[in-house]
Amino acid sequence: MPDVLYFNGRFTTTDERVLGVEDRGFQFGDSIYEVFKFLRKRPLFLPDHFRRLEVGLRAIEIPNPWTESSFRATVEELLKRTQFDEGIVYIQVSRGEGERVHFYPENMKPTALMYTRRFKFPDAAKKERGVRMITTEDQRWRQCCLKSVNLLANSMAKKRAQRAGADEALLLDGGFVREGASSSFFAIRNGAIITHPLDEHILPGVVRDHAISLALAEKIRVDERPLREAELFDMNEAFMTSTTQGIMPVTEIDGRIIGDSRRGEITGQLQRLFDAVELTEAGV
Ligand code: PLP
Fold first, then answer.
1. Protein residues whose CB sits closer than 6 Å to any atom of ligand 1
2. List 37, 127, 147, 158, catalytic entry
3. φ and ψ at 96, to 5 degrees?
4. What is the CA(188)–ligand 1 centre distance, in A?
5. Helix (H, G, I), strand (E, B) or coil at 161
6. Residue identifier of the C-alpha nearest atom 5 of ligand 1
7. Consecutive sets of 10 residues in the chain, 284 residues long: mean pLDDT of each?
8. Which of 76, 97, 104, 205 is 20 to 30 Å from 265 by CA-CA measure?
């Protein structure tokens, strides 16, 4: 069953081959993307995702085809046309289509698309069981704060994790822990949370932001600093966050057990709070 697709001002389905071979998103990764979750056909944290898209596009000098209100209107129309109530929306804005040259022309017309997709979000058992990670070298570029479609290094790290029987790759760089290949990472030690500060090494995760706010509201200390690799096996708990996984316990890294190998107390507390925030967003 094809998905509903918005492409440059019109609606179609993912059956239609809309993209030209000389689109710069395809040939140069000259493109910014977003992913958000919807529940009961209600988009979650839409302003956060729009803001990140806007910042990313501005950073690489692609004009944003949407204002916040036209973005919301397009999303609402897309969801109205979608057959299912919950899933994800993938959005991409590339610099556009044109003759293949590295030095891109000024004033190209951006390619803007978004489509819905069914998604199996983690169930209660998975949220309790958590995930396994392996550590691997961070081979990404130096602007990881942009949600660029250049995901080759992330994909390769993720594949290494899969081959090792793990769920996610934890990216290490010069002795520091950065983030997951597609998630933000949090360590907990002596009741305090440690997570990487917002800089060029990590993506400003939407769920990361909510997790920090929830922790602070609960009077849990949050230290935003790079965690040293050597500290990894000296944690009481760990969790990762992402749009599709929410707050997810990490119970094993490189085959070594974290805490007592079950979801930690603080992780469980934040997970419950975050799930409730999502339901409120969805109007449940
Ligand atoms: N870090 C990376 C590299 C990601 O790709 C993602 C999500 O895909 C995240 C972090 C988590 O971001 P968010 O919470 O906005 O989904």
1. 154, 179, 182-184, 203, 205-208, 241-243
2. 147
3. 125, -170
4. 19
5. helix
6. 182
7. 96 97 97 98 98 98 98 98 98 97 95 98 97 98 97 98 98 98 98 98 98 98 98 95 98 94 95 98 94
8. 205
| Per-position b or e across 205-240, b if 16+ CB within 10 A of its CB | bbbbbbbbebbeeeebebeeebbeeeebeebbbbbb
DSSP reduced 3-state for 151: coil
* Helix and strand numbers, DSSP H then E, in the chain: 7, 16
CB 176 within 8 A of CB 200: no
pLDDT in tens, 46-85: 999 999 999 999 999 999 999 999 999 999 999 999 999 9
Please state, in angstroms and as integers, the Cα–Cα distance from residue 106 to each residue in 28, 61, 96, 98, 117, following that order. Answer: 16, 9, 11, 11, 33
Shortest-distance atom of ligand 1 to CA 154: 3
- The CA distance from 259 to 257, in Å, is 6
Check if the beta carbon of residue 115 is closer than 8 Å to that of residue 6: yes
Closest-CA residue, ligand 1 atom 8, reads 182
**Residue 158 bears catalytic tag:** no
